[in-house]
């Protein structure tokens, strides 16, 4: 099949939508399909010499007013984009987002008679206050609900990565067919790197000397309010009161980074808190492998790919018992689930750090649980949807 992914976000942007698209695209190509990704241009691409993993059609774009990391397509390029898509001769057009380019893709499907296959990646009700912070929270959430109901009730079939987000869409009044297909993780990349871990730890300890010893807690993701990272810092302060040699690594970047740094300095724990910025995806398994516990307090995840990545690397998780994290862990398989407060998160972390036998049990559970969420399984489910809506390919 000739398959088009249409998205308002793609490389060099780093988020779950991009990771999901990359994993599915790589696996679909491996299965013999042709892929084209339609996405925005980014100014930094001119200096990054970024290698595109699959053919990519970049639409000239403008900065998004509500987020300096995001872009809005210049819509007057739409006729040219349509001509490029016609030349590709797609069998399937898969819309990944809700905004300017996502709507352009929907218009293309409408004009060319394609079914609109979409994926709802983001629980916007939980995120929108971080973008439209000038609005009262109740109004922002109302706007998000109306937006999602209107967008997805016009699509043919909506793919969701978890049953939790399916329930959210139904609660909003989305009546279209919904299919649950988890975002899969590549277990040929994410697996325990035990032999390399000690050497890698020694290497990063040259940059962060405190990491040469003691347990390591790890967070990976956007450093934004929606990820609940300030709560994690509060929990870590409590952990240090009992285990003074513990360390916390934040992988990623975002608007809360400086606030986290100041919080650590004010608490006098700055030598125990380390910010790496974004790291190459190929290095992530090494970070997971040196971590004692992966800590993920987000309550907004539609799924939480980093949780699965961590488990595939044999690293137990302490997460908050809500949304996608709760669904992936299925009742504390591969870690422990806390309530949404610093005391509970700290308690679960300490329970694992103080009980080596429980930590090892959760490590083994994590390895087994992670295998349930591999890209191979998810890609087969996605192919089945494509074939159902493209009868000539059945």
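^ structure tokens above, recovered residues below v
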């Amino acid at each position: 099949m000739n398959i088009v992914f249409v998205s308002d976000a793609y490389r060099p942007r780093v988020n779950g939508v991009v990771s999901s698209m990359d994993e599915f695209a790589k696996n679909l190509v491996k299965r013999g399909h042709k892929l084209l990704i339609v996405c925005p241009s980014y100014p930094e691409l001119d200096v990054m010499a970024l290698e595109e993993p699959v053919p990519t059609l970049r639409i000239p774009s403008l900065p998004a007013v509500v987020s300096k990391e995001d872009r809005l397509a210049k819509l007057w390029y739409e006729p040219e984009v349509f001509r490029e898509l016609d030349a590709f001769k797609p069998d399937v057009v898969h819309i990944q987002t809700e905004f300017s380019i996502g709507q352009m893709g929907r218009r293309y499907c409408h004009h060319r008679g394609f079914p609109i296959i979409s994926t709802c990646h983001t629980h916007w009700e939980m995120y929108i206050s971080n973008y439209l912070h000038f609005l009262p929270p109740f109004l922002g959430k109302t706007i998000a609900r109306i937006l999602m109901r209107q967008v997805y009730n016009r699509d043919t079939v909506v793919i969701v990565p978890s049953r939790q987000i399916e329930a959210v869409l139904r609660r909003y009044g989305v009546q279209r067919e919904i299919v649950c297909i988890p975002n899969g993780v590549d277990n040929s990349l994410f697996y325990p790197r035990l032999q390399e871990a000690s050497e890698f730890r020694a290497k990063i300890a040259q940059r962060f000397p405190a990491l040469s010893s003691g347990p390591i807690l790890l967070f990976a993701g956007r450093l934004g309010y929606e990820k609940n990272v300030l709560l994690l810092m509060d929990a870590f302060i409590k952990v240090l009161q009992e285990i003074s040699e513990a360390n916390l690594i934040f992988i990623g970047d975002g608007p809360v980074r400086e606030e986290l740094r100041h919080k650590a300095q004010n608490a006098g724990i700055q030598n125990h808190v380390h910010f790496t910025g974004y790291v190459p995806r190929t290095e992530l398994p090494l970070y997971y492998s040196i971590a004692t516990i992966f800590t993920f307090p987000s309550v907004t995840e539609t799924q939480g790919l980093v949780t699965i990545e961590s488990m595939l690397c044999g690293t137990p998780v302490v997460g908050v018992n809500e949304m996608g994290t709760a669904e992936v862990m299925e009742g504390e398989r591969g870690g422990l689930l806390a309530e949404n407060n610093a005391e509970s998160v700290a308690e679960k972390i300490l329970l694992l750090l103080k009980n080596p036998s429980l930590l090892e049990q959760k490590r083994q559970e994590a390895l087994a649980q992670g295998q349930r969420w591999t890209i191979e399984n998810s890609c087969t489910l996605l192919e089945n949807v494509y074939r159902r809506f493209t009868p000539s390919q059945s």
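The chain has a mean pLDDT of 91.
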